[in-house]
């Protein structure tokens, strides 16, 4: 992976390139251009910065706090056979969508991106097959499945029948949080041993 | 979740915290016994039992003398899964202990039978279908070779019911197996190097392959999976030396593609006619009508015939496909030389309950109606033990072995099941307490037969369901189901049963109840033992004559594999089985499935939501023997 492309792209991180090319790493660092449209970030790890930057898509805005979007999304979810794999959120051929784990990210942009592009372990790429607005509506329904309000509305064995609108607070997720209930001391330094 | 990729907590802690605690589903109460029919009410035969006319046993051609190896999942052409080794018996089996364990490095449902040939053990895992060869001559059975076929990962997304594989076969120096993404591969049994690879399935159309190929007389028989994806079922015959396709017989469509010609003669008039694989469907529906071939294929050496079942028609919503939907949910007999059909019998015309016809056939010579007859015994998903004349496809008897109310018996004149209108499925209407459930009174897990006891050892389920049909559109490569199913325990509440069945007297000899469905195969031995596994992790031995529990061992995960018995290089008897829960019934543990959704995994989760409390996913080989 010591390609010219790699070296120039991350030249400001000498540590990473040290094993590749000593000359390259000793060069004067050149500032990177400001990030262009980087697509949708799926990883909590972004080299060189402490937190993944939140990439936003202004198209997502309309689908927050939108009761129609999740209800329409629910209908489309069945119509396009999403339910054949993901059931009513519990999964089967595809993963569960009602739990709190997001393999490829749980913000609307990220779910939309998964619908458009597909994913390698069996998620089809729907981007060219379904109108974009419908994909956003399906994304909103998928995000709604694990909302406390949607889970609380479950009555009987079939969940996600009364999907709550996706609150705007769901958009503020920077991609990674310390697990709830932990004390955040990963930056502290102690003197020792005593 | 067992998938690559970084798992990101969805939202701030306030959202993420409560998820796992809310609305844990409970297993629903069992269906009352009064809801199902008794064997006396619906069991039927064309003649009364005549046990004095002879003894049930496979023919010598279909079950040659046991050489102590176990080279194919079914053991022999008759597929008796019977071992004539008798070192282990009721008096010493409690001394059985594990000698070898081996991690498969795959935590998905392990349904395969270990294969033993030339003092080497061969194992194929669930996706990604690793093949391991272990040297049984050396201490600890070290790895001889490993082969990774690297099936395309997207194939996982079109596999209906976990990413399982039901095993390979050693023949003529090759280990032959299938991959989830539709390949049949022959490896050099000594080196693990591919001899040939043939791609038969198209995942973009929803096809996968999970079945164990049958190898017989220089041909390899392979069929497709994908009955929940709107695929069209087929059986292919390949040349064993080259992997070249010799013929392919579809389960739906015109006679020219189903390979129905002059040789074909059905035992019942409704199964005789031109292009019934087209005319028994609405226009064009046969092209996406299922009838896959993912179960067991037999070669009948007595009659030089290939026998195999076809799976359910698609979609599950039967209102979208009026007609008998031939040639789904039945059994074909074919000429191995060119695939030409000889006869067909349909277990479930116009199936309304996902009753595939792919379960095993055991080929026996059996006393019936005062004389010995060449029969096959088949345990259908629909709950009946069928005894069928394998020379012509004529049903001799059909008796329930599990809870049944979807039909009122099989009409012995027409060969058709007598439908119970109250349990017919309809769009938009929830039909409750249908027995057996979609996965059947028994699914793929194969029975064994002991010629010593004359009994079949049937590992099966006691589960019913509520079913609501829904309109569904066909989108290639996506599920084509159209039904919401919620499963529930059958009468008594025990979800699993091991039934010892006497096919001659048409009755159960004994029965063992298990909490979970028995999703493993059984093996019967000449020491009058029967081995089977449970989904909560026990591997058990019971007395073949009485069902008395004799020994059990708790494995790392649940057991849904096919146990085998073989003679080791030291001359002693060994028992081997894979542990690793999963499959359709175990997807709630092995799959990325949430137990709060009863409709998940096609409704199986509704009756299995407690399994995660009993077992975790795994993948381990166990080999047991006595201390010596």
Fold and architecture overview:
The complex is a heterodimer of chains A (194) and B (628). Chain A has 194 residues and is mostly helical. Chain A folds into two domains: 9-38, no CATH class; 58-172, Cytochrome Bc1 Complex, Chain D, domain 2. Chain A contains eight helices and one strand; from the N terminus they run H-H-H-H-H-E-H-H-H. Chain A has helices at 4-9, 14-17, 22-26, 67-79, 82-86, 108-117, 132-144, 148-152, and one strand spanning 101-102. Residues 1-26 of chain A have low confidence and may be disordered. Chain B is mainly beta and 628 residues long. Chain B has a single domain (24-92, 108-625), classed as Quinoprotein alcohol dehydrogenase-like superfamily (Methanol Dehydrogenase, Chain A). In chain B, the strands form ten sheets. Chain B has a five-stranded antiparallel sheet with strand order 2-24-23-22-21, with no helix packed on it. In chain B, strands 3-34-35-36-37 form a five-stranded mixed sheet, with no helix packed on it. At the A-B interface, helix 5, strand 1 and helix 8 of A face strand 1 and helix 1 of B.
CATH C-level category of chain B = Mainly Beta
- Uncertain residue ranges of chain B: 1-23
Number of beta-strand segments of chain A:
1
Mean pLDDT of chain A: 79
Largest sheet of chain B: 5 strands, antiparallel
Structural class of chain B: mainly beta
Given helix and strand content, the structural type of chain A is mainly alpha
- Tell me the CATH topology of chain B: Methanol Dehydrogenase, Chain A
Which term fits the overall shape of chain A?
globular
* Number of DSSP helical runs of chain B: 6
How much strand of chain B? 25-35%
Q: How widely separated are the two ends of chain B?
A: 42 Å
The helix fraction of chain A, in percent, is: 25-40%
CATH architecture of the largest domain in chain A: Orthogonal Bundle
CATH H-tier superfamily of chain B:
Quinoprotein alcohol dehydrogenase-like superfamily
Estimate percent helicity of chain B. Answer: under 10%
